[in-house]
Every structure is written in structure tokens, then in C-alpha cells.
Amino acid sequence: MTTAPGSQRRVAVLTHMGRPTAIDAATRLIQGLHASGVTSLLPAGDEQCLPRPLADTVEPLGSPTDASPEIELMVVLGGDGSILRGTEWVLQADLPLLGVNLGHVGFLAEAESSEIDSIVTRIVDRSYAVEQRSTIEVTLRDCDSGDVVWSSYAVNEVSVEKAARERMVEVLVEVDGRPLSRWACDGVLMATPTGSTAYAFSAGGPVIWPNVDALLVVPLSAHALFSRPLVLGPTSRVVMQLIDRSQTEGVVWCDGRRSAELRAGLQIEVQQGSHRLLLARLSEAPFTDRLVNKFGLRVEGWRGQAEDRASEEDRETIRGREARLDDDEHGDGDRSDDQREGAARRRPDGVPDVADTGLR
Q1: Which family, according to UniProt (predicted)?
Q2: Cα–Cα distance list, 119 to 28, 68, 122, 279, 298 (Å)
Q3: Of these residues, 24, 46, 80, 328, which one is catalytic?
Q4: 164: annotated binding-site residue?
Q5: Strand pairing partners for 114?
Q6: Which residue among 38, 64, 315, 331 is least enclosed by CB atoms within 10 Å?
Q7: In the structure, what pLDDT confidence band is assigned to residue 44 with cuts at 50, 70 and 90?
Q8: Do 15 and 122 share a domain, yes or no?
């Protein structure tokens, strides 16, 4: 949302005010924004956790259904759970959300709490990009009358889970108007690409890059020969209902925050949502780098990394050796073809060429 020139700029701030680290980060953020002439909005009661002079500078943030249209951005300080809470404000209003990580992995977060000063500058200068993420619309409907019983949305995933721990839930799954399979299972997940690194990842589903427009279906511990994760198209519609002989009723969860009972006679309908989650981005780093950093993946020995570090002096050395090898090929009759070929592949930093390692 663009603020009209000369009008008061407003940024919503959301965090867990029961944690000292969150209060400290929010205090520094609000102080920085206030010094730059930007007003912060907090949920009612949260301002009581701030130092008194600073608390007097903030304005109340309305409920998720009554948020001010003058807000240009929401900043959420916390883990992915806090960010998912923040989507309740921003999704319907098409408002960008900037996540600042105070948790552990924090896949949805863009920055760390140690970067507060830089974050303030980027907000004040509006120097951030906005990335769109797909969402899921969920509808619980009466099978006979077609009446809508309950509806919600999800940013990460919708899960259909068994209500009784010791029982399995039995469901019939339909995709695009055609029956797909029956599963006796612990549950079924339907996730966005964003959610593919959350619950679906723990359940054995694939990681889907955020720019892939898709819907993921992951059965949970299904007793069936065909129970692999499925990657569906963006226009696909999934319908699921309990089989009459199911040993237990089910529970529908959206992002682990909103739930409804699923019993015989009801069906759940899932499809891509009409609203997109707008995530503010401070960096253009590719998703691959985010995946490596968040999971701490081992990438030592990557050849491209060594080449990026090579100095001009290193490159001059490489060119000199290549020239000498070229001379050897024309004047050194004592070396075999294999020796010359192996020497041509060796690099001055001692890292063998991919061909030497047998890797492709």
C-alpha cells in the first residue's frame, strides 16, 4: 500500500509480548520508526509492555477484520508461528508482511533481530521488494444439502487428522471431480509450496520452490500401496470425506491455528486461495541459499564457491599454467596423453576438477 505524500505513515508491529527478547526487539524497532516519523500500531494491550514514553507514541491495531487501511506494512517479530498469526491481518487487506526471526528455523522470516537498525532504514526508505505466495481456501460443506458449515484459509497447510489417537481415520479423496483413492491413515496434508518446508516436510513430502504454482497432497502413515505425496496443478480442487466405517471422526486444522470437526456427512474442499500472501523481502538471495542456511546443509567443496573466491592473482597463475601445459603438449614427448590431460584438469588451489572425482 502506498501512503499519500505528506500523510502520516503507519506500520503495524506484532510480536509475543510475553517474551523479554521479543519486547526488547519490538522496543528497538518502534523507537527507530518513531525517530524517523513513522507511527507504530500494536494490538490492544501490547503497548503496556513498552517503556512508558514510547508506549504513548503508538496507536491501537484493530482486529484482523477491522485493520486500518492506512497501514503500509506489518512487521512480525518472532518465529513462523507468530508470522502465521500476522497473516490474519494482512491477507484480506493485501498488505505486505515483513518477518523478523526470533525463533529457530524461521523459514518465513526475512531478517534477524540483530538487524533492527538496518530494518528500520529499509522500512523508512521503502527499499524492499514484495514476493507473492499462494494460499489455500478451505470449505467444510454438508454432503447432502451443500450448505457451507465452516470456511477458512491456510498459508502453510490444511491437515485432516484423526480425532482419536489410537484409531485410524478412513477417507475418500477426490481430485478435480474424480475419485483418486481411499486411505486408512493418521491424516492427510494439503500444503502450499510455502508449507512444503513445514509439516509436509516432516511427513516426507518434497520441497517445492516458492515460485512453483502447485498444491501438495501428503498422506500421513497411510495403510495403502498407493500413498505417495502428490503435486497437483494450481487449478486443482481436492475434496475429502470420511468413509462411513471410519473408526474415528476427524479434525481439520489450518496452519495449526484454526480448526473444525470433520464427521460423517461432511466433506472438506480445498483449492488455491484467491488472496496471495505478500512477503516483504530485503534480499534477492535465491531460495536455494535460504534452504541451505535454514537447514544448515553441507555445501563444502562446491566448485563454484572456490572459483568465486579466486583472486586475480590466482587467475593469472591459472593462465600461466595453462600456457605451460599447452607448450608441453607440443614439445614434451616424455609425458603420456593421460598425464597431460590430468595436469590440465588440476587447479592451483589443490581442488580436483569434477572429472577427476568421478562426480557429474
Answers
A1: Belongs to the NAD kinase family.
A2: 11, 22, 5, 14, 29
A3: 80
A4: no
A5: none
A6: 331
A7: very high
A8: yes
User: Are 16 and 118 found together in one domain?
Assistant: yes
C-alpha cell at 98: 515483513
CA atoms within 13 A of residue 38's CA, in its CB half-sphere: 25
Burial of 124 (0-12, 13-18, 19+ CB in 10 A): middle
Q: Is 347 annotated as a binding residue?
A: no
Supply 118's cell numbers: 538496518
80 a catalytic residue:
yes
Which of 226, 233, 229 lies closest to 182 in space, CA to CA? 226
Query: Angle formed by the axes of helices 20-35 and 116-124, to 10°?
Result: 40
Is the pLDDT at 281 greater than 90? The verdict is yes
Residues 113 and 130 in one domain: yes
Q: Give the structural domain span for 333.
A: 303-357
pLDDT digits (tens, 9 = 90+) for 163-188: 988 899 999 999 999 999 999 999 99
**Total domains, the chain:** 3
User: Per the annotation, does 125 bind a ligand?
Assistant: no
287 is in an annotated binding site: no
